[in-house]
Amino acid sequence: MRQRALWPAVVAAGLAVALAAAGCGSAAGPGEADGGGADRLVVWDWKSGDANAAAYLDAAKADFAKEHPDVTVEFVAQPFDQYYTLLGAAIQSGKGPDVMLFNGGGQLRDRTDALVPLDSYVADDRERLAGWEAFTADGKTYAAPVTLQGHPIYYNKELYERAGLDPDRPPSTWDEFVADCGTIEEKTGTRCLALGNKEGIGIQFFLSGLGSGVLTDQEYDDWIAGKRDWTAPHVKRIFELWQQAEQTGLNNDGANSTAMFNDSFALFQSGKAAHVIGLMSDVGHWQDFGEFLDPEDIGVMPAPVITPGVTPSLPYDGGIGYAVAKWTRDPALAADLVRSLTAREPLAAFQSDAGAIAADTGIDVSAGGPAVAAIVAGIDGGKPALHVALSASTLELMGRLSQQLLSGSVTVDDALSQLAASDQG
Fold this sequence. Notes:
Radius of gyration: 21 Å
CATH class of the largest domain: Alpha Beta
Shape: globular
Number of domains: 2
Strand content: 5-15%
Helix content: 25-40%
CATH topology of the largest domain: D-Maltodextrin-Binding Protein, domain 2
Number of helices: 15
C-alpha cells in the first residue's frame, strides 16, 4: 500500500513553451467537465485522445484501480491550442478538473496558486523520477514529471557520408560545424539547419540547443537561477549567431514563414537539411525521424563549442507532468492518481508507443536505437534548458524579436535591451 501524506497548504507563483501535438476532440469548458468527488476524478490533458497514449493510460488506470477500485477516472482531451485558455477559465471560475496536465516551466509556474503542493505525496518517487525542477516554484513541487523534454541536435549521418565526412565524428566546434555544413551543401546540395520560426519558437530551440557551447558554467547556472545579464558578451554571441546563421545561408529558405510544427522537422527527415535542433519527446524527435530515415542514420551531437573551454551539455527539463487542482474534494486521492500516471509500467508503455523519453530513467531504452541511447546517456550531465527559465511574456517578446532579427529589422543590441527590460519586469 502507498503511504498517504498529510494534505499540505496551498502556495503560489512563471514559464515554458508548449511543445506538443494537439489533443483530439472538441473543447470542454469548466462547466462541462468539472471535478468529481469520492468516487470520480476528472483529468484534463491533450494526450488522452492520442492513440499512442492509449496503452499508457490503460496501465495508469489499472495501477490506480489496485487501491481505488470503486473510483471512476474520466479523461477529457482538450485541443492543445486552446488548452491553457480553457484551463485559465477553469481557474478563474474556481472549478474544473481534479488533475491536469502541464508543460514544465512557466505554464505551470504561472498557475501555482490554483495547484496543490505535492511534495509530501510524491516523496517516495523523488529518486526514481527526473525532471522535478521544471515543476517546482518557491521550493515547492506542483506536478510529477511524466516525460523529459529537451533539445538535442540531430544530424543526418547519411548526408555526412555522402559529403565525404566521418558520420561518427560530428563537428565539435562552431568553426568545424560551419565548415562541415559548407562541405555538405557543396557535395549534396543540402542546407545546414532546418529552422521553423513562423511561431517565433525557433529562437527558443536555438538558445537552449547551442547555449551550453557559448556560456561558461557560471553564466549558465546564473541564467537558470534568474541572475541573467543580457548584455554579457557570451549572451550577445548567441543572438549574433542566430542572425548570422540566417545571413550566411545556414538555414533553409524562408525560416520566418516555415512552421516548426511540423514543416521544419519535415525538412530534416526528408533529407533537405543536415541538422535540426529537435525535441526528446512528443514530436520532432528520434522516433518521428525514424519513420522516414534509417534509425542508424540519425545522429545526436553535443552543441559545438563556441567559447573555448566550455563543456557542452544536454539541455533538458521535465517535459509534461500532472498536477492536482486546489479545488479537488480529495487531494490525497487525486495525488494517488498522479502517482499512478507516473508509475514505471505506464511510463514504459508511453516511451515505447509514443517515443517519449520517460521521466523514469530506469526504464530500458535499448530498443530505441543509437539516437535515444545517446540522449539518455546525456541526462546525468545535462542542465535545464535556457529558455525554460524565462517568463511567458519574455518568451513571447523573444519570439517576435527573433523574427525581426532574421529579417534584419532590429539590431542584436536593441533586441537584448528589450529582453532585459522584460525579464526584469
